[in-house]
Amino acid sequence: MSKVLVIYAHPETAKGSSTHELYKHFINSYTAKNPNDEIIVHNISEYMPFRLDKLAISIYNKNLAKSDLTPDEIRLSESRDKWLDEFIHADKYVFANPMYNLFIPAEMKRYIDMIMQAGKTFHYDDKGLSVGDLHGKKAIHLQSSGGNYHNDLIQNDAMIYDLGDQYLQTMLHMMGVDDYSAVFAEGMDKDPMHTIEILDNAYAKAELAGKEF
Ligand SMILES: Cc1cc2nc3c(=O)[nH]c(=O)nc-3n(C[C@H](O)[C@H](O)[C@H](O)COP(=O)(O)O)c2cc1C
User: Fold this and answer.
1) How many Å lie between the centroid of ligand 1 and the Cα of residue 183?
2) Where is FMN annotated to bind (predicted)?
3) I need a labelling partner for 12 at 20 to 30 A (CA). Which of 24, 135, 144, 160 fits?
4) Ligand 1 atom 28, closest CA
């Protein structure tokens, strides 16, 4: 039985969401194939308490200097550790988000800020190089975007503008998670006449990915 951690970043609104549909197609197919797996879902657009503020940076500096934390710093550190432990103990990660300004939503960046912790998810070797500490895990990125970045027949280098997917893949790699795949629902704003076809195609890919994940 695997533990699947879903980091979902989309504010819930009355309007339908292609991110949500993409995720639903993926997870329904995944759970049909793996009915006994544990699925933990966080909508971090609704709740993401961690930010790199004065307190968080003070903890960072004190940990480096190995000096004592204040009671407030201990409290924040302990609540961060709960999120970190959850991440470390999951077997599979699902990141689902719309593209915002060529990147992942800010809350997802804050989630990454929270789990990137030397001594927990990676460490530095004696040459000062970072080494990932998570092993045998896999991740999938499900992303919806108005433009076309991964299947653009006109602009061959479009992929380099999807900074969020590259970032996510790089950060997971830094933590040792190299089994990484992605499904994109993309190009609906660029080619609105074909929205239904584009989405149906993406949802079918998400279903297939759910069976294989
Ligand atoms: C604030 C904001 C920024 C966006 N930035 C981009 C962008 O940089 N590139 C892009 O292709 N689409 C961008 N979009 C469009 C969304 O990524 C696209 O509409 C996506 O399908 C929305 O997913 P949803 O249906 O789940 O809300 C942006 C949308 C919003 C609201």
Assistant:
1) 16
2) 99-102, 144-147
3) 160
4) 100
- Distance of alpha carbon 190 from alpha carbon 170, whole angstroms: 27
- Which atom from ligand 1 is nearest to the alpha carbon of 189? 19
The answer to whether the annotation marks 144 as part of a ligand binding site is yes
Residue ranges lining ligand 1, Cβ < 6 Å: 10, 17-19, 98-102, 144-147, 188-189
Read off the tokens for 196.
């239904």
Range of the domain at 75: 3-212
- CATH number of the domain encompassing residue 178: 3.40.50.360
The total of structural domains in the chain comes to: 1
Measured from the Cα of 190, ligand 1's closest atom is: 11
β strands within 99-213, DSSP E: 122-124, 130-132, 138-145, 179-186
